[in-house]
Amino acid sequence: MNTPTLTAEPEMPATIDLTALPRGATMRNPIFDQKNTKLVAAGLAITDELIAALRKRGVCEVFVAPEDMPRVKAFQPQGYARTSSPDHATDTLSTESLPAETDASQRMDDETSQEVASEIEVSDNPFANRVKPREAVAYDADFSNHVAEQNENRVGELRETLRGCFHGDSSSVPALAEAANQALGDACEDMDVFVCLGINPYNSDYPSRHSAHSAMLATAIGTQLGLDQQSLQDLATGCLIHDLGMLAIDQKLVGSQRTLEVGEFCEIIKHPLKTFDLLAAGADLLTAGARMVAYQMHERCNGTGYPRKRTLAGTHFLARVAAVADTYTALVTPRPHRKAMLPYCAVEHLVQGVQQGKFDARVVRALLEAIGLFPVGSFVAINEEYVARVIRSSGKSYDRPVVELWKRGNLRADPAIVDLRHETQLKIVKPLASRGV
């Protein structure tokens, strides 16, 4: 089997427009111009004054280290496609579940063969009570930079945890629960900032980045469902560890630039089993809820998922929340064999999944309340005169979010902050791939 070396060919610096540098952010590496002249030292904050000074020097484009690109692209949707080639075709697989591979996966089968908590457990003391109420205001730049920086730290720490587990060291697994709790603290301060970062991942550091962003979205959905802090911690922790087994899959399949054939995909779907094979005794360091999430999040309510083809009644409710978060995050992230979907189209895909019986309707409804029909961060056309960026969801008013609004032809002006719930003459007419479209 072609297992990963866990090293990669060095990526080349990315060329970006000077104006794309995020104000207030601190790059971890120097920024250079096309002549390889250092323009900005590592650790120096990007300010309007700095950008203006570089522009006066005639700088239009800069080279940014690959490690800093997730920070540059934070809070921005990466999707353009309105439809997506499938990652796989689970409906064409055998109706039989996968065989247990080792004692570790057999233990999980024994655990899940018992009665699972399939009913969503709404708490008398929900975490939502700790979240600050939404206001129709712009994001605070300092807090946004803090959340982005903390997320980069968590992705890096998760990458090292997964590497350790792959090599037989599970000692850092308990730290995942603490990382989940720290993320919950950020969510308390401004859930929309937290969600906007979480649902707009940059394509790098797979599987650690995908897992971290899935955990953020799952947290937001779970908050909307009325879960308590411990349940959210279990949910996020399970999301963080769930793709560990992907490191034990043939990496030529994982990074394939074409849609996999059924036989090849049968290898991919073994990864929940391999997660627990790699964890071995380290699985005891996870709570029962976190284990259920990591093992069952690829199951589907109609029995078409994996590894055991369980239906809604046999799937833990936290795993059903994770399934929706994981699917959305995957759809809006570019993969080697396909483009990323527009956020609105990814939501449509999940709604269709409910109609097909794949996803829990209550969970997808909570997704809509958490991120909106036009998810936070998205660009949209309003009437025929305006372009807007969605910055805050509006709960059950799925299609009436708070937006930053520009008049077409005047995109350099400061945007107006508009709550569409109170401006009934304004209506979103379609999603856009970017503000300039």
Main sheet characteristics: 5 strands, antiparallel
CATH homologous superfamily label of the largest domain: Hypothetical protein af1432
Mean pLDDT: 90
CATH class of the largest domain: Mainly Alpha
Q: Find the CATH topology of the largest domain.
A: Hypothetical protein af1432
The tally of strands reads: 9
**Helical proportion, percent range:** 25-40%
- In terms of per-residue confidence, which ranges show pLDDT below 50 for 5 or more consecutive residues? 1-9, 88-95
Give the oligomeric state: single chain
Shape: globular
Report strand %: 5-15%
How many separate domains make up the residues?
A: 3
Structural class: alpha+beta
Order of helices and strands: EEEHEHHHHHHHHHHHHHHEEEEE
What does this structure look like?
With 437 residues, the chain is α+β, with helices and mostly antiparallel strands. It has three domains: 14-72, Molybdopterin biosynthesis moea protein, domain 2 (Alpha-Beta Complex), CATH 3.90.105; 90-371, Hypothetical protein af1432 (Orthogonal Bundle), CATH 1.10.3210.10; 379-432. It has helices spanning 48-56, 69-72, 103-113, 141-166, 174-189, 191-198, 208-224, 229-241, 251-254, 262-268, 271-279, 288-296, 317-331, 343-355, 361-371, and strands at 14-17, 31-32, 38-40, 61-64, 379-382, 386-392, 402-407, 416-419, 428-432. The strands form three sheets. Strands 8-7-6-5-9 form a five-stranded antiparallel sheet. Helix 4 (141-166) packs antiparallel against helix 5, helix 12 crosses helix 13 (317-331) and helix 13 (317-331) packs across helix 14. The longest helix has 26 residues, at 141-166. It starts with 13 loop residues before the first strand and ends in a 5-residue tail after the last strand. The relative contact order is 0.13.
